[in-house]
Design brief:
Helix content: 25-40%
Strand order of the largest sheet: 2-8-7-4-5
Radius of gyration: 23 Å
Shape: globular
Strand content: 15-25%
Distance between the termini: 13 Å
Oligomer: single chain
Number of strands: 8
Length: 240
């Protein structure tokens, strides 16, 4: 009788844990994320803020379609987004093509004092994306104001950003060199506000079938792992 009670308790603990893990996992799948670049340090170079380290800031984070990067800086520091590694490496977009590079925020050297800048940038394309400041002949970029991220598909884009994605510059094909043609457009200014969006929104249901498939596959993978854990636990309980 005591052994039966122990087994029942073990199974109850396991199923409770399974329910919690699945609930947490589903919640994490549905939430788009907003990332403040540099966290409390913002978007600056090492000459102004010696502690900034954007490579360290990127490490461990997962960036997906529909997420937003929030740049908090001032009018002495620009924001350049490019899909071209050569442009990024040179810290200079003067000769870059508008097909793959966009100046999202410009500087105002004529201002008596810098103005605050708050710039939300949606992630609209899968693959490597590069950001840097090109001010003062690339000096800010060369002094740490740059980073690169790999954008994954995740849930896919919400409906509110799909039009922006169609108009955004596209990544350069690495197999074809830097001259690969892509649509010569930029991110519309109307898409400058991050939103907390759920993939279960009514307006997105019909457009997110591919995203749902990705989420379901990941959920089944999680379930398979937990099932293996359950079998191991069950074996231990039976032995006891």
């Amino acid at each position: 009788m005591e052994q039966s009670s122990s087994k029942s308790l073990g199974l109850m603990v396991f199923y409770t844990t399974l329910l919690v893990l699945v609930s947490v996992y589903i919640g994490s799948v549905e939430a788009y994320k907003n990332y403040t670049v540099g966290d409390s340090l913002g978007w600056y170079d090492n000459l102004e803020k010696p502690n900034v380290n954007y490579q360290k800031w990127v490490a461990g984070k997962t960036f997906s379609l529909g997420d937003f990067l929030i740049f908090k800086t001032d009018s002495n520091h620009s924001v350049i987004q490019t899909y071209n590694f050569t442009t990024y490496k040179l810290c200079d977009f003067d000769d870059a093509s508008s097909n793959d590079t966009t100046q999202l925020s410009t500087t105002d050297p004529s201002a008596a004092s810098p103005n605050s800048v708050y710039l939300p940038v949606p992630l609209l394309k899968v693959g490597m994306t590069y950001f840097f400041s090109s001010d003062y002949d690339g000096e800010q970029c060369k002094n740490g104001q740059h980073f690169k991220i790999n954008v994954t598909y995740g849930q896919g884009l919400p409906k509110s950003l799909k039009e922006a994605s169609d108009e955004a510059p596209g990544p350069v094909d690495p197999e074809s060199g830097d001259d690969q043609p892509t649509p010569a457009t930029s991110v519309p200014s109307s898409f400058n506000n991050p939103r907390d969006i759920s993939s279960n929104d009514d307006e997105d249901k019909d457009d997110n079938k591919a995203s749902d498939s990705v989420s379901l596959a990941a959920l089944l993978k999680l379930y398979g792992s937990l099932l293996n854990g359950f079998l191991v636990l069950l074996g231990i309980v039976c032995i006891l």
